[in-house]
Amino acid sequence: MSRRYDCADAEQRAAGLADAASTLRMSQLVVLPTDTVYGIGCDAFVQSAVNALLAAKGRGRDIPVPVLVGTVRAATALVENLGPYGQDLIDAFWPGPLTLICRANRSLSWDLGDTKGTVALRMPLHGVALDLLKDIGPMAVSSANRSGQEPATTVEEAEKQLGEAAEVYLDDGPCTDRAPSTIVDLTSAVPRLLRRGLISEDKLRAIAGYIATDGAPQPAASGPEPEPKPESAAKADPDQD
User: What are the 10-residue block averages of pLDDT along the chain, 241 residues in total?
Assistant: First the structure.
């Protein structure tokens, strides 16, 4: 039976984080709050756990799973480089609702799906998520819902959709923002907006100057998040937080 912890209570939060970390080390799945929506996650370096995450969501490998990190140092270890603007964007918007798509470090032994050599990275602005990430390391995380269904903004919504697929549910109340993270592709010389989200184009341009948009989709106020154009350098998770 899945275990649920109320992170508003200090004792339950501590117990929940310890249980979640132990569960992740056993290659099992955990539902956690973020600053956008609830996510379902696993150790990013355990293939069986990533496969279980995809199965829990009812999705194939064609849309790879994003990775959440607890520190900038962890993020830089996962990529070949951040390009000319990546560090400036990180300094301005992390932790927060900005997902960066970069060329993955080729020496890493992991399989997040059909990534075409890239990885989608984000550091969430949420205390529970950051505490877990700093303990366990990079996590493969997608929104805590069945693919094609509405993203979960409460732990109850996540549990209704995912049930026993996750061993641990960390409950920190309703998410404050239903809008997803903004996604920027840094795999070419010019940053490219793949999905509009909480961070506006104007704020991105204030840091990076020019941002290519190519008709990046605008997410609806609710419901599943749209997928970027197929010709994008890397497919972003349509259910991503």
Answer: 97 98 98 96 96 95 93 96 95 97 92 89 97 97 94 96 98 87 94 95 95 70 36 48 60
Burial of 188 (0-12, 13-18, 19+ CB in 10 A): exposed
Report residue 104 as tokens.
């993955």
Length of the chain: 241
SS3 79: strand
DSSP string, 126-189: -HHHHHHHHHH--EEEEESS-TTSPPPSSHHHHHHHHGGG-SEEEE----S--S--EEEE-SSS
pTM: 0.89
Residue type, 208: A
**Distance separating alpha carbons of residues 110 and 52, to the nearest angstrom:** 14
22-28 long-range contacts (CB < 8 A, ≥24 apart) are: 23/167, 23/168, 24/49, 24/132, 24/136, 24/139, 25/136, 27/52, 28/52, 28/166, 28/167, 28/168
Tell how many helices (H) and how many strands (E) occur in the chain. 7, 10
pLDDT of the residue at 221: 38
Which one-letter amino acid corresponds to residue 51?
A: N
Beta strand pairing call for 3-6 and 182-185 = unpaired
**CB-based contacts of 193: which residues, under 8 Å, 6+ apart?**
182, 183, 184, 185, 201, 204, 211, 212, 213, 214, 216
